[in-house]
């Protein structure tokens, strides 16, 4: 019985799904890990108007001159770091904070 409860709690504590890009690329993340203070600044420099992973991947790859300011050489690297940071701050995933 105790093992079943432990397994249930362990499963419940695992994050499910993936947060939207707007939550991943928060102002805090942008300030800490890039040369930008917001997602809007990055999107302006990349010429991206929509939040679409395919567009971000292509835009970051096409703008080699921005890699030092972005702090990452590709979208996958940036997204992985953003996901890690997100779950460090919110280990239970997308839940409202009261």
Automatic annotation (TrEMBL):
Q: Which domain of life is it from?
A: Bacteria
Its protein name is Uncharacterized protein
Organism of derivation: Halalkalibacter oceani
């Amino acid at each position: 019985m105790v093992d079943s409860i432990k397994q249930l709690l362990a499963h419940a504590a695992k994050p499910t799904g993936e947060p939207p890009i707007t939550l991943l690329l928060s102002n805090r993340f942008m300030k800490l890990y890039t040369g930008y203070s917001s997602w809007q600044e990055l999107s302006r420099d990349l010429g991206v108007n929509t939040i679409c992973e395919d567009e971000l991947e292509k835009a970051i790859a096409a703008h080699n001159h921005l890699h030092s300011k972005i702090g990452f050489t590709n979208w996958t690297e940036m997204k992985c770091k953003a996901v890690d940071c997100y779950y460090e701050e919110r280990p239970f995933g997308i839940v409202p904070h009261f």
